[in-house]
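Handout, section B. The chain below has 308 residues.
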Amino acid sequence: MSRPFEELVEKVKNFEMKKVSVAVAQDSAVIEAVRVAKDRKIADAILVGDEDKIKAVAKEINTDISDFRIIDVKDDIEASLAAVKLVRDGEADMYMKGLINTKDFLKSVLDKEVGLRTGKALSHVCVFDVKGYEKLLFLTDVAFMTYPTLEDKVAIINNTLEITSACGVENPKVAPLAAVEVVNPKMQCTVEAAELTEMNKKGEITGCIVDGPLSLDLAIDPEAAKHKGATDRAIQGDADVLLFPDIHAGNLVYKAMVHMADCINGNVITGTKAPVILASRSDSYEVKVNSLALGALVAEYKKKMGNA
């Protein structure tokens, strides 16, 4: 029986292959990932960076890149701007970080001339397929927004809804997380979680069900919901989206799942004109391949919705 994330990857193969533009592509893990992605018919790639170094890295890891387009740009900053411009101009469908520091990569994303600004806030979404959890689980934000305000959390939810829709999950259950499941005026995240829930009830946040504050166990474990007598909650251990109060909580849960659970995951930045793949240096090439598949799904969704 196939797992939910594997089904997403199969969906990608049903439409025209998308293309990723890689900034400063002389990175072994990235080259391996785009090679595998193309072989699996997930995505093609344009490699932008120092051509000599790109070819040297590919040779070192014994990977054939002769069928990839390579654009030779020696300077890292110039390479990132050239790579993101390919996406802006429609020559590529998504944008991926290579061997460039995150700060400079994000500067290219936000560049006023060639970047992928939309006027929306940017946020990061992780899609997890965890063994034992019967559906996809969306984590946000674990890597981009540090201490999101109430307004930021509304933007994060709306950004995430684009990803859930692209993955075929409609009207997802969004759980704003806290250490407790009741409002405590001394714990600001519980106050804001309750405000998000009320905004959802009033129709100010649409396309989902918001129920918070929720502790993590109530959000993902039906038995915990029963034991705690939370049978009146809209979410009873069946959340689709985990909305974290800050980057610390999100990042800790993300890394615990990656390193301790049997899971498959991919990550994408949203709020941009096109999907942006910002993989961690510690992510395996498989996570990078999964992220390319996720990016391709989102790119196809944007195309269908007329937002590409």
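Note. The mean pLDDT is 94. Compare this with the example in section A.
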